[in-house]
Specification:
- By secondary structure, the protein is mostly beta strands.
- It is elongated, with a radius of gyration of 22 Å.
- It is about 10% helix and about 60% strand.
- The protein has an 8-stranded antiparallel beta barrel.
- It has one domain: Porin (Beta Barrel), CATH 2.40.160.
Length: about 220
């Protein structure tokens, strides 16, 4: 939210001539690839949304910078005659893609293609609650512990290579741009093992992701 407000203030003080080259708006959409986050009972949201800035360059080129937010989650269970355990993972993710795009000439509709870099930063935690039979005389022992995903992660930041393509429709000062966006992640995602008997449950993802996005900017 602070990032979005800062962009609005910056745009408000841009000189009129330069403002024609800058667009401020919103980007949102959803993941359509089948790859899911979490190795058991995935509860990650498909949607992604955030502020967007476009800077138009000469020769039909432009630069797009987004700040996109989404959430990941899963729930795992471990049950046997001596132990019952539940593991819940919840994370907030921010992606900061920067793309260089080429927009083909047109009147009201401009096809475009682009490519760029997308770093992904994830913060959250995994909470484990359980109980086990510690002995015939000692009865049942309960426990709870928390794992911070960032500190426990093998890879706290993912690096994405992005290509996209779509159509930019111009209605007065408003640009409406649906697109397909493909991201190749290296490494795919932070890998968190919460420990315990349910420690096989982790945040994980594949290398490839396909998204349908819809951008609206005002110039």
């Amino acid at each position: 939210m602070r990032f979005f407000l800062a962009l609005m203030l910056l745009f408000a003080f841009v000189p009129p001539a330069a403002a024609q080259l800058v667009g401020l708006g919103v980007e949102g959409g959803a993941r359509v690839s089948t790859d899911v986050f979490g190795t058991a009972n995935p509860e990650s949201k498909r949607y992604i949304v955030g502020p967007r800035v476009d800077v138009h360059l000469p020769r039909n080129f432009s630069v797009e910078v987004d700040a996109l937010y989404r959430t990941f989650g899963f729930t795992g269970y471990e049950t046997s005659t001596v132990i019952n355990e539940i593991v819940r993972g919840r994370s907030n993710s921010w992606e900061l893609p920067t793309l260089i795009k080429y927009r083909y000439p047109g009147f009201l509709a401009h096809p475009f293609i682009g490519a760029g870099y997308d770093p992904r930063f994830v913060h959250g935690n995994t909470v484990t609650n359980g109980s086990y039979v510690s002995g015939v005389t000692s009865g049942v022992t309960t426990y709870t512990y928390l794992t911070n995903q960032q500190s426990a992660a093998s890879y706290p930041v993912s690096n994405g290579a992005v290509v996209n393509g779509g159509m930019d429709f111009v209605v007065g000062p408003v640009h409406i741009a649906p697109e397909l966006r493909y991201i190749h992640w290296t490494p795919p995602f932070l890998n968190v093992n919460p420990g315990g008997s349910a420690g096989s449950y982790k945040f994980n993802s594949g290398h490839n992701e396909l998204m349908v996005l819809f951008g609206v900017t005002w110039h």
